[in-house]
Design a protein that fits this description.
heterodimer, A: mainly alpha, B: mainly alpha, two-stranded antiparallel ribbon
């Protein structure tokens, strides 16, 4: 029985309870960060904070609840390629992130272009941002 | 693999020191990671490449508190899953059964809260392809929904299989015994035709005042039109017209929101189905379900993991144009 590798016989109840408490604290911190967003120097700072907390939560869940901390080396073989590809995909998309490919300065059709000129006559096409 | 394992029954077999079912579950989770990474990567590209992405709660109708509660619900369910797994390992099957029942209930609670959020989106028509992204589209939508209301009202006033246009013509052409409802219909039809004409000729603007589009006030003529027909006893019930409110990039936002949270909700439902099987065993739940509980638990934790990232990305993080530049 596979679960005997990491749970059979030993009692992890206290550890699991502590992990659950930690996850609750992390969730509360995310919510508090959103409530206090006015105090953050920039919106990207809030993003870094809450995504950092999310990463910590994910690590804790994977290590303890999914038992990766207790598993043998097969986990590296199995998950390594997936992790590399999962990181590689967003990195491959980064150039598009940088060039704003879907830009409001380039309306998709003449009707919307006309509409945007009316929307704010002071800003002509190409000057609205 | 190079090593040879000896199973509990003494037979020699090749492979990893884990059951095939667990290996398959991890391989499946590997594909799931890629599946959701594609969504999250696309979301980041679309959001960072769209300065002015809707982040105001008045536009998105996103409820951070409900999202936070749902995060807690999933974390609590994950905790109960590990308790169930631990209990199975100790042959405390009834304890495990109760924990799994609680997990199932929490899954229902998660979906219930999610449906409240979805209801908010549907009631405000925050749906892909339905959202006006500029004033002109908002006026077009106002006219389109008004025409729809007129046709609905015509259908209610005249029975039979004629088209709404034919029904409207028959109401208009009536000379004797015209009811109050029919008078209201004719007045409403005239108002809709007038609005349609003004929008087509660009004789009416959505907002008045100057400044940024978001700071404009709704044109009092349009506001009066909405107030009048919403409160009309005859037209009101058929007048399902939303406040005209352009949301820049609203359709992309709605697509992203529903595809990410929708696929996650589907995964929650699948996870709940997985828990039903051991629960159906009731008092006969035994050691033969240990691997099932462990593998279902891995899947459930993964569903929790996905939500851990969706919650900040969709509900909290506010990448504005400033973050892009």
């Amino acid at each position: 029985m596979s679960h005997s590798e990491h749970s059979g016989g030993s009692d992890h109840s206290g550890l699991y309870r502590a992990i659950f408490g930690l996850l609750c604290v992390f969730t509360a911190l995310s919510w508090a960060a959103d409530e206090a967003k006015a105090f953050f120097p920039g919106r990207s700072t809030l993003a870094v904070v809450v995504l950092g907390i999310a990463t910590l939560k994910a690590l804790v869940v994977m290590l303890f609840f999914m038992h990766l901390k207790f598993e043998r080396a097969w986990k590296y073989v199995l998950l390594g390629p997936t992790v590399i590809l999962a990181i590689g995909l967003p990195l491959a998309l980064l150039p598009d992130v940088g060039v704003h490919y879907y830009d409001m300065d380039v309306p998709q059709d003449p009707i919307s272009q006309h509409a945007f000129e009316r929307l704010d006559p002071a800003d002509g096409p190409g000057q609205s941002h | 693999m190079s090593h040879i394992q000896t199973s509990g029954h003494g037979a020699v077999r090749m492979g990893l020191a884990i059951p095939n079912s667990k290996l398959c579950m991890w391989l499946f989770l590997g594909t799931e990671i890629m599946f959701f990474t594609a969504f999250i990567g696309s979301y980041l590209v679309l959001r960072l490449g769209s300065p002015g992405w809707p982040s105001d709660v008045a536009d998105t109708h996103i409820n951070v508190r409900l999202g936070g509660v749902n995060t807690f619900v999933l974390i609590l369910s994950s905790y109960l899953v590990v308790l169930a797994h631990e209990a199975m390992g100790k042959s405390e099957f009834q304890k495990a059964w109760k924990a799994m029942l609680a997990v199932l209930a929490l899954g229902c609670l998660f979906l219930g809260i999610k449906s409240i959020e979805y209801y908010g989106k549907f009631s405000h028509d925050i749906l892909p392809g339905h959202i006006a992204e500029n004033d002109y589209q908002a006026l077009q939508k106002l006219v389109g929904e008004s025409v729809q209301a007129r046709d609905t009202l015509a259908d209610r006033l005249v029975s039979g299989g004629d088209s709404p246009l034919q029904k409207a013509t028959s109401i208009r052409g009536k000379v004797d015994g015209v009811t109050d409802a029919e008078k209201a219909f004719v007045a409403f039809e005239t108002a809709v035709a007038d609005l349609k004409s003004k929008v087509r000729k660009e004789e009416i603007s959505l907002h008045v005042g100057s400044g940024s589009p978001g700071a404009h006030e709704l044109n009092p003529l349009i506001q009066a039109y909405l107030d009048k027909w919403r409160s009309d006893p005859t037209v009101g019930p058929a007048f399902r017209v939303h406040d005209p409110h352009p949301i820049v990039y609203g359709n992309v936002f709605a697509s992203i929101y529903f595809i990410m949270t929708g696929f996650h909700a589907i995964h929650v439902i699948v996870g709940m189905i997985l828990w039903v099987f051991p629960l159906l065993r009731g008092k006969n739940l035994g050691a033969d379900y240990c691997d099932w509980v462990e593998n279902s638990g891995l899947y459930w934790h993964f569903v929790d993991l996905v939500w851990i990232f969706l919650f900040p990305l969709i509900y909290i993080v506010n990448f504005g144009s400033a973050a892009v530049v």
